[in-house]
Design brief:
With about 425 residues, this protein is an alpha+beta fold. The protein contains 16 helices and ten strands. It has four domains: about 45 residues, no CATH class; about 180 residues, 3-hydroxy-3-methylglutaryl-coenzyme A Reductase, Chain A, domain 2; about 100 residues, Alpha-Beta Plaits; about 45 residues, no CATH class. A four-stranded antiparallel beta sheet has the order 3-8-10-9. The chain binds (R)-mevalonate. (R)-mevalonate binds next to helix 9 and helix 13. The site of (R)-mevalonate (MEV) has 9 residues, from helix 9 and helix 13.
Length: about 425
């Protein structure tokens, strides 16, 4: 039987599900039940989610957690986090509490410029092209007036349009490099609409526009977040050694890309969780952040650490293009709720909160890695999950937790200990 279909998108949701379960599953009913189990019984709410994308057949849940006790620039926050990874929210909560008694996090937005480009080919004299651009530059602003009107009222809009000669990298390749201020919106639609209007006006018989699109590389949309305290306030049995190993761990991630990728992945554990909870585009944030981590030509750590005159300082500097209005932030009830929980931040405030979540996550990871090792905490969680899966009673659970307090956890070892208990 063929497993391809024409006109899938035209089928009703029920017909889509029927075709899929009958074509790809041996137990069609069970697959159908699972899909239906995750479909919301509130018809309106389900329709809202159906319309976010195409060919929706169910919902895919991720846990929505909260890390309380963050203090950022003196203001208190409970931070919403959506992630499937255990320990991320616990780590954020512990670190938030830890730094709340040491002055909290300090954060500042360094710049908020966003970028879009019209990529085009021109097989002629550059001076002529430059003249054509100079003559038409004002007109390029004018053709976006209708699109930028509201944004300009809010203090944003197009900042500049530049002609860039890229022919040393690719024959005949030029671009209009456009910078934007999109205020509290992420601004993807706004930027792309402006670019297409500009491209339409700019093209002529000798200018072949290839494409017009925003860039998710935003090295001028930067936020910095920091924590610091006296080394002895790190409350560890040997704070000097601890601080030194911590600093070395960051230095290693600065010079060794293999480590840097994992180091930054841990940072993104915190960042993505808040970005998703607030209805922002985590793929845009991810690609932009990794490009920013490579801006020196080598992939490096997004965080830095310094120990000077007995003061431990740890900070992150990261590019983040975020919005608190428009897009999913207005549509998804939980994204809206997240923003309310964060006390309705501006995009700049959200940049600070998200950067702090990344820094906190990295602090937790490096603290664990340079002391007990990462598996210590993970294995504790793993143990609880296995015990739950086995269906252990309360007293059996306590017994097993005690048993494994000083023993290596593995699935088979837990099953064996459980079976012994049962006998
Ligand atoms: C796991 O999701 C993240 C870590 O690997 C980050 C790191 O190694 O720094 C623990």
């Amino acid at each position: 039987m063929t497993k391809t279909i024409t006109g899938f998108s035209k089928l009703s949701k029920e017909e889509k599900i029927d075709w899929l379960v009958n074509t790809f599953f041996t137990d069609a009913q069970s697959a159908k039940n699972t899909l239906n189990q995750y479909t919301n019984s509130d018809k309106k709410l389900q329709e809202l989610h159906d319309d976010f994308i195409e060919n929706t057949i169910s919902n895919y849940y991720l846990p929505y957690g909260v890390a309380p006790n963050f203090v950022i620039n003196g203001k208190e926050y409970a931070v919403p986090m959506v992630t499937e990874e255990s320990s991320v929210v616990a780590a954020a909560s512990l670190v938030a509490k830890f730094w709340s008694t040491r002055g909290g996090f300090k954060a500042e937005v360094l710049s908020t410029k966003k970028i879009g480009q019209v990529h085009f080919m021109f097989d002629g004299d550059f001076d002529e092209l430059q003249d054509y651009f100079d003559t038409n530059k004002n007109r390029l602003f004018e053709v976006t007036e209708a699109i930028t009107k509201n944004m300009r009222k809010r203090g944003g809009g197009i900042l500049d349009i530049e002609l860039r000669n890229k022919t040393s990298e690719l024959k005949n390749y030029y671009q209009l490099h456009v910078t934007f201020d999109t205020q509290d919106s992420m601004g993807a639609n706004f930027i792309n609409s402006c670019l297409e209007a500009i491209a339409n006006e700019f093209k002529n018989d000798s200018i072949q526009v290839v494409m017009s699109i925003l860039s998710n590389y935003v090295p001028e949309c930067i936020v910095r977040a920091e924590v610091s305290c006296k080394v002895e306030e790190l409350y560890h049995e040997n704070p000097e050694l601890y601080a030194q190993k911590f600093e070395q761990a960051v230095q290693i991630a600065n010079v060794e890309p293999h480590r840097a990728v994992t180091h930054n992945k841990g940072i993104m554990n915190g960042i993505d969780a808040v970005v998703i909870a607030t209805g922002n585009d985590f793929r845009a944030v991810e690609s932009g952040a990794h490009a920013y981590a490579s801006r020196s030509g080598t992939y490096r750590s997004l965080t830095n650490c310094e120990i000077k005159n007995g003061i431990f300082k740890f900070w992150i500097e990261i590019s983040l293009a975020l919005g608190t209005v428009g897009g999913l932030t207005a549509l998804h009830p939980l994204a809206k709720l997240s923003l309310q929980l964060l006390q309705n931040p501006s995009a700049k405030e959200l940049m600070k909160i998200v950067a702090v979540a990344g820094l906190a996550q990295n602090f937790a990871a490096l603290r664990a890695l340079t002391t007990t090792g990462i598996q210590h905490g993970h294995m504790k969680m793993h143990l609880s999950n296995i015990i739950k899966q086995l269906g252990a009673s309360e007293s059996e659970t306590t017994n097993l937790l005690n048993h494994f307090a000083d023993k290596q956890v593995s699935h088979s070892a837990v099953v064996e200990a459980y079976n012994n208990l049962k006998q």
